[in-house]
Write a structure and sequence with these properties.
This protein is an alpha/beta fold and 161 residues long. It has one domain: Response regulator (Rossmann fold), CATH 3.40.50.2300. Helix content is 36%, strand content 25%. Helix 2 runs parallel beside helix 3. The longest helix is centred in the C-terminal third of the chain and has 13 residues. It is globular.
Length: 161
């Protein structure tokens, strides 16, 4: 089944994961994001914001689902909420850090919590690129941030640091 430039490949919790039609193969032409958030409205908003970037996007409605989807989707970037039932965002970050295959995936934390206060209280692991407030996301800035992270080779930088 095809929708424009994308093929619908998966339905999970009512959200479609859309991927470009070309084969990923060894040389990836498309970047893939995994959104981990328990709020359906946030998934819808992020889909709208990300659509112009033509990225592959997979959706997880919980920390457990997100961790379970890592091997299948092999994301280049994770957008992670902090406050979720079950495994929260901090638990997910700890599990990502504890696995050599996921410890290098860059993460953008998006939260409804006070970002300034969080930055004082939490020492973020190196894979957290930035922490943003859900309430203040601006479309152009958000897309530019995503593109910047995806164009930068964070895994290489960390390996040689």
């Amino acid at each position: 089944m095809s929708t424009g430039e994308h093929s619908v490949v998966h339905l999970r919790d009512g959200f479609l994961a859309c991927y470009p039609q070309e084969n990923r193969g060894l040389l990836k032409k498309t970047s893939y994001l995994l959104i981990i958030d328990d709020e359906p409205a946030v998934h819808t908003l992020l889909d709208l914001l990300l659509r112009p970037l033509s990225l592959g996007v997979a959706h997880a409605m919980s920390g457990d689902d997100g961790l379970g989807m890592l091997a299948e989707y092999q994301p280049d970037l994770i957008l992670l909420d902090l406050q979720m039932p079950g495994l929260d965002g901090l638990d997910v970050l700890n599990k990502l850090q504890g696995n050599p295959q996921t410890a290098q995936i860059p993460v953008i934390v998006h939260t409804g919590w006070n970002v300034a206060k969080l930055s004082q209280d939490i020492v973020w692991p190196p894979q957290v690129v930035t922490v943003i407030d859900k309430a203040t996301i601006r479309a152009a800035e958000f897309r530019a941030m995503i593109q910047s992270v995806l164009e930068h080779d964070y895994a290489y930088e960390r390996a040689v640091s």
